[in-house]
């Protein structure tokens, strides 16, 4: 019997992956794979903060209730209670590791750190580091990971798939290095922390969003994917067709920002009693409707009435970034549009991150724990990363596989050749077509005809790609194949949901079903003859 090269292989270096690595490395050897080009992933760009019950004026039941309401009837209440209950300890874990959160300077403050409020929350429970919380957390944890003697950080490998032995256990992963040579990393436990699938869409809130590749790696081993149809669109991304993505935090509305239409009028007050602080699906659909009715392609987010001092204090990052794009948010409103932001669905897991495939775990946005239901409430995402990564670490520390069986030995393929210019252009064109199809047909508002058209277009893309790359060990081909398949499964999940709920709004099925159920798909649902 051979020996794995590491106890725990972690794929992904956002908050979930870094937390897991640090929380387990004192007992088990860890290899963390995070290619250099992934440094601009979603965790780093999380602005608003982390939701947790920290103030004595708040309580766990209120956080549970707000989360269940936002999830629109599809949350797993046990998962919600598990997450909320473990939230305060997760925040303290970050504080103990040196994350510097914004203090509350008020002499009568009931909690040492400033707590803001965001959409869907009925209390101030968002702890933050100014308006760059994700960056503060990631930078701190990265420094700790780099200094830990029992963690090996691999920045030179892009993972393409997972390994599985004859017993069905996941035994590691394979990929290519910067020289395009195949690399194999074997492990007793493998954990995916690869993020979500916002990259399936043209407009996102992250400069380098994932496209769900990790979800498909797990599906290729037989894992179940849940709730793929619930893709969250953040209501307020900076509108600039010629510039990079940039998120305008939920906290901007939490501190009193107004949404205005082309006529300069607030419109959320007529739609929901919570106005700008309604859950994200409600706000995003309202903005989308205003854009469809107007001519400018966006709405306005106005915080001028807060005053320059408050804007400088609460939103220094947003202020500076908008200024770099020619917008002075102290003097003019911000043009905003909804953009793909967060995948509520993913690999089905339990409270310890187990996927049902022995040896394979998933934490963070790549997983579907049941916490978010049909719509994620603001700032519950980093909370989920922390709570489930720490729970996964606790479970792995207690696990003892009696016997480790290596995956079957296969001939090492030659190094992946570099694509020709024509091939690069063709793959880029097909990826653009996929994103356009998803943005047009599988977005904020959907229809049976649009979903059916998307289903046909994606099937055609899959056939084109298969004809180009059959039999090749070609990273770009393999990754695009995974992305196309995940998009196809997302469309199938949307077609099978005959109702409107949370982030899935169908013009053909505008009502709720009386007994909602989570969707569940596997790779077998892509087989020919599957009924949609």
What's the short story on this structure?
The protein is built from 13 helices and 18 strands. The mean pLDDT is 91. With 532 residues, the protein is an alpha/beta fold.
Give a description of the structure.
- This protein has helices spanning 15-24, 60-70, 77-96, 133-147, 213-220, 250-254, 280-293, 308-314, 316-324, 380-398, 421-441, 448-469, 475-496; strands at residues 6-11, 30-33, 50-51, 115-116, 126-127, 151-154, 157-164, 170-177, 182-192, 225-226, 231-238, 258-260, 299-302, 334-343, 346-348, 360-362, 367-368, 520-521.
- By secondary structure, it is of the alpha/beta class.
- Among the domains are: 241-338, Succinate dehydrogenase/fumarate reductase flavoprotein, catalytic domain (Flavocytochrome C3, Chain A, domain 1), CATH 3.90.700; 421-526, Up-down Bundle (Methane Monooxygenase Hydroxylase, Chain G, domain 1).
- The strands form 4 sheets. Strands 1, 2, 6, 7, 8, 9 and 16 form a 7-stranded mixed sheet that branches. A 4-stranded mixed sheet has the order 17-15-10-18, covered by helices on one side. Strands 11-14-13-12 form a 4-stranded antiparallel sheet, with helices on one face.
- β1, α1 (15-24) and β2 (30-33) form a beta-alpha-beta unit.
- α2 packs across α3 (77-96) and α11 runs antiparallel to α12.
- The longest helix has 22 residues, at 448-469.
- The protein starts with 5 loop residues before the first strand and ends in an 11-residue tail after the last strand.
- Pfam families: FAD_binding_2, Succ_DH_flav_C.
- Keywords: FAD, Flavoprotein, Oxidoreductase, Pyridine nucleotide biosynthesis.
- It is an enzyme of class 1 (oxidoreductase).
- It catalyses: L-aspartate + O2 = iminosuccinate + H2O2.
């Amino acid at each position: 019997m051979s020996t794995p090269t590491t106890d725990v292989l972690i794929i992904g270096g956002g908050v979930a992956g870094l937390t897991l690595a640090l929380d387990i490395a004192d007992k088990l050897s860890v290899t963390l794979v995070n290619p250099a080009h992934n440094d601009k992933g979603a965790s780093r760009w999380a602005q608003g903060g982390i939701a947790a019950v920290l103030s004595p004026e708040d309580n766990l039941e209120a956080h549970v209730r707000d989360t269940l309401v936002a999830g629109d009837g599809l949350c797993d209440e046990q998962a919600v209670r598990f997450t909320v209950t473990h939230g305060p300890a997760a925040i303290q874990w970050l504080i103990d590791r040196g994350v510097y959160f914004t203090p509350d300077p008020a002499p009568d403050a009931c909690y040492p750190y400033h707590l803001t409020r965001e959409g869907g929350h009925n209390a101030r429970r968002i702890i933050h580091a100014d308006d760059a919380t994700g960056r503060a957390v990631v930078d701190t944890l990265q420094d700790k990971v780099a200094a830990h003697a029992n963690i090996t950080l691999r920045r030179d490998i892009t993972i393409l798939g997972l390994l599985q032995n004859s017993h069905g256990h996941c035994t590691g992963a394979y990929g290519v290095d910067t020289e395009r040579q195949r690399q194999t990393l074997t492990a007793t436990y493998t954990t995916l922390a690869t993020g979500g699938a916002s990259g399936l869409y043209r407009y996102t809130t992250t400069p380098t969003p994932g496209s769900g590749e990790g979800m498909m790696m797990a599906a290729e081993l037989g894992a179940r994917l849940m709730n793929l149809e619930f893709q969250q669109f953040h209501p307020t991304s900076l509108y600039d067709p010629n510039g990079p993505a940039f998120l305008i935090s939920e906290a901007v509305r939490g501190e009193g920002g107004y949404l205005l239409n082309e006529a300069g009028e607030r419109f959320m007050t007529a739609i929901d009693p919570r106005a700008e602080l309604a859950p994200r699906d409600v706000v995003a659909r309202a903005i989308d409707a205003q854009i469809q009715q107007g001519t400018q392609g966006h709405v306005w987010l106005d915080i001028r009435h807060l005053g320059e001092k408050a804007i400088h204090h609460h939103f220094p990052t947003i202020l500076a970034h908008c200024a770099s794009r020619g917008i002075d948010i102290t003097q003019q409103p911000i043009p905003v549009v909804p953009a793909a932001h967060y995948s509520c669905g993913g690999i089905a897991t339990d409270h310890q991150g187990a996927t049902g495939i022995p040896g394979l775990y998933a934490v963070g946005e790549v997983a579907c724990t049941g916490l978010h239901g049909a719509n994620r409430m603001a700032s519950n995402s980093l909370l989920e990363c922390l709570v489930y990564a720490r729970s996964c670490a606790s479970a792995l520390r207690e696990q003892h596989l009696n016997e480790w069986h290596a995956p079957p030995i296969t001939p090492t393929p030659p190094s992946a050749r570099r694509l020709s210019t024509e091939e690069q252009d063709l793959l880029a064109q097909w990826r653009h077509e996929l994103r356009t199809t998803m943005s047009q047909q599988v977005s904020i508002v959907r229809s049976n005809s649009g979903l059916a058209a998307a289903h046909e277009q994606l099937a055609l893309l899959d056939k084109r790609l298969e004809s180009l790359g059959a039999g090749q060990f070609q990273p770009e081909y393999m990754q695009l194949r995974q992305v196309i398949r995940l998009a196809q499964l997302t469309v199938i999940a949307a077609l099978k949901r005959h109702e409107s709920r949370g982030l899935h709004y169908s013009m053909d099925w505008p009502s709720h079903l009386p007994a909602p159920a989570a969707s569940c798909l596997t790779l077998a649902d892509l087989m020919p003859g599957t009924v949609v």
